[in-house]
Amino acid sequence: MADPFSGDSARKKSDFVAEVVNHTLHDLVIRCTKTEEVRNYYHVSVIGYGRHVGSCFAGPLSARNIVPIAEVADYPLQVKSSYKRVADGAGGWVEIPVRYPVWIHPASDGKTPMCEALARAKDILQGWLLQHPRGFPPTVLHLTDGESSDGDPNEIGRQIMSLGTDDGAVLLFNCHISTRRSAKIEYPTEESSLPDGFARSLFEISSKLPSNFLAAAAQLGVNAVESSRGFVFNGDPSSIVQFYEIGTSLTGMTPYRWMDDRTETA
Amino acid sequence: MSSVKQSVNLDLQLRQLLLPKLGQEVSECEDVIAVDTEKCRFAVADGATEAFDARKWAERLAQQWVRRESTLTPEEFRSWVAEEGRELHDWWNGLNLSWYAETKARAGSFAAFVGVELDLKSELPCWKAIALGDTCLLHRRGDVLVKSLPLARSDSFNNAPILVASNSALHENSMKSVVSDSGKCESGDVLLLMSDAVASWYLQCFENEDLAAEDYFFTRPDNELIEFFDQERLAGRIRNDDLAIVRIEIKERSMG
Prior knowledge:
Chain A is of the alpha+beta class.
């Protein structure tokens, strides 16, 4: 994650991923905001892995494994000021000051203990499912830039996919990002189209995209069909943004396209 | 139920019902009814649940509109909404909001709106209405639905109606969908202003030629009426949403 994306030598992958995750959290909070109150429609966990496996939340939420969205809203690590370009209503554009919260900082060290990270995710899911047996089934969005350094993740991935609520199975989506200039493969339907065993292993532990997620993909112009898996291989920056937008579009709402209107970060 | 004398020949009989979603308090209801019997203007607005301060925007639209003169053409409506939106955004800008409320307020609020003005004093009594979104005006004469606007069929309702936006940047586009219309009034006519869930249900009753519900509606006391609509929502025949109904019956004025 310390490497830059190919063709974008100025930017580390870890910086970009942290920005996407912060904006995803921002989007979830806004979706749950009812005037001045944030309703706990979601509980969120952000697990990172490298030298250590654990919660990525910093500041007041430090070390919390799972956090109700109202607390996420109220306890960012910091709130940055930015500018946003908006239509002025008379055919032009104006830049207005806006505030963007930050919950996690980029990190990129150590190996890729994918099995340990997925096992941590499974523990958190099991605790949540005990308390919410009738809830909307959780979604796990797993992002990696390399092969597992602690074994084959297939078994632990299958264990996660076997969990669920009365409303359905836990959804596990995987996004692999790469610095290589290899062709990216997004939301495939068959493993025969994949280049190697690692890709096929992640494909096997990727859930099929349910209809709401397919609708979100269509709104973003992403080619996904009924039997598509929630899986991206050799993804680029736009793949990451779309992966999080699709993966958090549970309600059929138009995905929040923050990349379209942001101009500057202070 | 109230009676408002309007002309030598015609009276109005008015009935209103406002119910929050099942399981919610009245204070959470985002449907608003406004009535000005002197001006003979009636309005229903339905604030969008996901929007910022939706009830306040719906209240502002309905209550300010019935107090005004005219505002019955799309052009008048457009400039009036722009002014109301600016005032509301100025007020929000003066509040000390959290980052998320500030973000939400900047996007603004949204509401469906329908307003009707009756002129029963002229030789040709009539109504004029303006609407945007999925709150509806329905004009019934006996067993005939004379008009329904802005939507005319129960299957025309969906989850993404074009609404009245408080944000001026969004409001120009939505204003292209404003509907204005008028019609003649006769003794015995019934005009209904309804928010989306109950309007959809009512149109379906017409499509199924099942008008018993309407007969039930205006003959029962409030407690039975509320129970009726609660049961309809529990049974899923009406979506569990806020309900707003203004029923205006035009009658021959009783002499003496």
